[in-house]
């Protein structure tokens, strides 16, 4: 069974940083494109970043210059480094991939919340 598991969410203050992880089981992440999406309360899920298996990366304007993606093939894990966080970054964050069967797979999500 294909499984993506996100972790690393939590409370953060404006200007702070957080690193989210997305770990895969049953398949090798490095062979596929990986995307990160987020869904804020009352809003639709939006794509913020997509990293192709060729190394190219797309960034949404809302996160460009603040968020980066990296891969650790030994751990079969992808990371989303988020810096200079803003209150509008509050959301549930999901990692995503599409495998050889052309089916999309999502993780369960991890919550990022700003503390007052």
Helix/strand layout:
Elements: E1 3-7, E2 10-12, E3 18-25, E4 34-39, E5 46-51, E6 57-59, E7 67-72, E8 77-82, E9 91-98, E10 104-106, E11 110-114
Parallel strand pairs: 2-11
Antiparallel strand pairs: 1-3, 3-8, 4-5, 4-9, 5-6, 7-8, 9-10, 9-11
Summarize the structure.
The chain is mainly β and 116 residues long.
Largest sheet: 7 strands, mixed
Q: What shape does the CA trace take?
A: globular
The low-confidence parts are none
Multimeric organization: single chain
Tell me the helix content: under 10%
- Helix tally equals 0
> What order do the helices and strands follow?
EEEEEEEEEEE
The counted number of beta strands is 11
Briefly note the structural class of the backbone.
Answer: mainly beta
Global mean pLDDT? 94
Spatial gap, N to C terminus: 40 Å
Describe the overall structure.
A hairpin with a 4-residue loop joins strand 7 (67-72) and strand 8 (77-82). The radius of gyration is 14 Å and the shape is globular. Helix content is 0%, strand content 51%. The model has no long low-confidence stretch (mean pLDDT 94). It is built from no helices and eleven strands. Strands 2, 4, 5, 6, 9, 10 and 11 form a seven-stranded mixed sheet that branches. A four-stranded antiparallel sheet has the order 1-3-8-7, with no helix packed on it. The protein is mainly β and 116 residues long.
């Amino acid at each position: 069974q294909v499984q993506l598991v996100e972790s690393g969410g939590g409370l953060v203050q404006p200007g702070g940083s957080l690193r989210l992880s997305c770990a895969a089981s049953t398949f090798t992440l490095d062979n596929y494109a990986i995307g990160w999406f987020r869904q804020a309360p009352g809003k639709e899920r939006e794509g913020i970043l997509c990293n192709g298996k060729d190394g190219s990366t797309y960034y949404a304007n809302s996160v460009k210059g603040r968020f980066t993606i990296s891969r650790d093939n030994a751990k079969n894990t992808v990371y989303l480094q988020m810096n200079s966080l803003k209150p509008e970054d509050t959301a549930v964050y999901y990692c995503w991939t599409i495998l050889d069967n052309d089916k999309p797979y999502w993780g369960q999500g991890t919550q990022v919340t700003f503390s007052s």
